[in-house]
Specification:
Helices cover 34% and strands 16% of the residues. The chain contains 17 helices and 13 strands. Helix 12 (234-245) links the parallel strand 4 and strand 5.
């Protein structure tokens, strides 16, 4: 007898579950069996997602009745987000500043932290970087000169609700006001996390956006943002992407998201299977600090990269959080290892109450200077200021031009050494002081 046949799937003895299935089943029984099978398969998939040891200890302590399958279910994470002062106090030892700030908050940009992301934070130390980015403090209510609710002037360029058309060939499509976590320095703090507020996101507004896009053949590039588009369910997101793809002149769709970092469990195999139908699709992933580089994030980014989605990063430069060359280098190396190209390093936008987060512009240049040439070029992001008032991104870079000497352009390299480049037709460097050359 063929031994392989004996080991084959059809010849194995029925499992305990299969034995318990009644031979004659009613309609409702069939439905129950189907639901159980779906739930079992979801549970099995959830169990295949990694849980790092620190996070496991956290959820056993604070969510003792939660199974690993629930913990790894992104919808459970969304439902269980830390949203109130009482929930914050259950988990964190709050400083008086944090407690007071959380108690006085109302309106948009509420507190919102996935239990997973909370598990990466220090529960005692209010100065810990990730915690500072998500738990408000009193400085958030201090408006400094030059700070605005809408510093990038997006409302001014909004053509239909949720659609910002500033540049000739591309648009920003604000799909939802929901995020999985709310960053205290958010550029769109005026509109996120406030369902009954001034800004409304719904399919009726999406339809108006589709009509606008169809009527504007010059638009070839759509950036989906919000809020976070990956908080939208698979079917609805599939509809949105499919609808955009049906507009012939749209060549390129990008998604800006923080979900793979703060809610990595959202990157399910079903999600990536759906996303890969809509290529070419690119993603910009929001990272802040090396603490975020967990096995869970290794998994979420691997799934997206394996689906053929080119991944770039965006990081906001934040005072006392990541404004240090060694911290930034570690972050950039870590995301590069996860097949995400470090793309933008942003100077923090002057939203109201952002003074405690904003560094000088010099600090960003200093960090880029510490990276450029000192590590892999791929690991060096472009440092930009998104110009207030809607001026767009302006690159800020260290100046490596020393001056000119006759036909030679004098350049300083990353080690501070000066080199000559023969450039007889050039003018670059003529305006430099002659004694600037070493
Ligand atoms: S995830 Fe993005 S949109 Fe949401 S709060 Fe953070 S920065 Fe703002």
């Amino acid at each position: 007898m063929n031994l392989q046949l004996l080991r084959g799937r059809d010849l194995r003895p029925p499992s305990r579950r299969e034995q318990s299935v009644p031979t004659a089943v009613s309609e409702s029984n069939i439905q129950n069996i189907a639901t159980t099978a779906i739930e079992a398969s979801a549970r099995k998939k959830a169990l295949r997602f990694p849980v790092n040891p620190g996070t496991r200890a956290f959820y056993r302590r604070f969510y003792p009745d939660t199974t690993t399958a629930e913990w790894n279910d992104w919808r459970w994470q969304m439902r269980a987000r830390i949203r109130t002062l009482a929930e914050l106090e259950r988990i964190f030892t709050l400083s008086a500043d944090e407690r007071g700030a959380a108690a006085q908050h109302s309106g948009a940009l509420p507190v919102g932290i996935t239990p997973y992301y909370a598990s990466l934070m220090d529960l005692e130390d209010a100065s810990e970087p990730l915690r500072r980015t998500h738990i408000m403090v009193g400085d958030e209510y201090v408006r400094l000169a030059g700070e605005e609710d809408d510093p990038l002037g997006e409302d001014h360029d909004t053509v239909v609700p949720g659609l910002v058309h500033r540049y000739p060939d591309r648009v920003l499509f604000l799909t939802t006001g929901t995020c999985s976590t709310y960053c205290r320095y958010c550029t769109r703090s005026r509109l996120v996390g406030n369902p009954g507020g001034e800004y409304q996101f719904n399919v009726r507004n999406w339809d108006r956006a589709f009509d606008y896009l169809e009527a504007h053949p010059e638009i070839r590039d759509v950036l989906l943002s919000g809020g976070d588009p990956l908080t939208i369910g698979d079917d609805k997101l599939d509809y949105l992407l499919g609808r955009l793809r049906s507009i012939k002149h749209i060549e390129f769709v990008r998604i800006g998201t923080k979900v793979p970092t703060v809610l990595p469990q959202r990157v399910t195999k079903d999600l990536v299977k759906m996303l890969r139908k809509h290529h070419p699709l690119w993603m910009s992933l929001h990272f802040t600090h090396p603490t975020e580089l967990t096995p869970e994030v290794t998994e979420s980014t691997a799934r997206l990269a394996d689906a053929g989605i080119p991944l770039g990063s965006q990081t906001v430069l934040l005072k006392g959080i990541n404004d240090d060359a060694a911290v930034m280098k570690k972050l950039m190396h870590g995301i590069l290892m996860r097949r995400v190209k470090p793309y933008y390093l942003y100077q923090c936008d002057p939203i109201k109450g952002s003074g405690h987060f904003r560094t000088s512009v010099d600090k960003g240049i200093e960090i880029v200077k510490a990276l450029r040439g000192h590590t892999t070029g791929y690991a060096t992001p472009i440092f930009v200021i998104d110009a207030p008032g809607g001026g767009g991104k302006i690159q800020m870079a260290p100046d490596f031009v020393v001056g000119r000497d006759g036909d030679d352009l004098l350049l300083r390299n990353f080690e501070g050494k000066v080199y000559r480049y023969p450039d007889p037709d050039g003018t670059l460097g003529r305006d430099k002081l002659p004694d600037a050359a070493e």
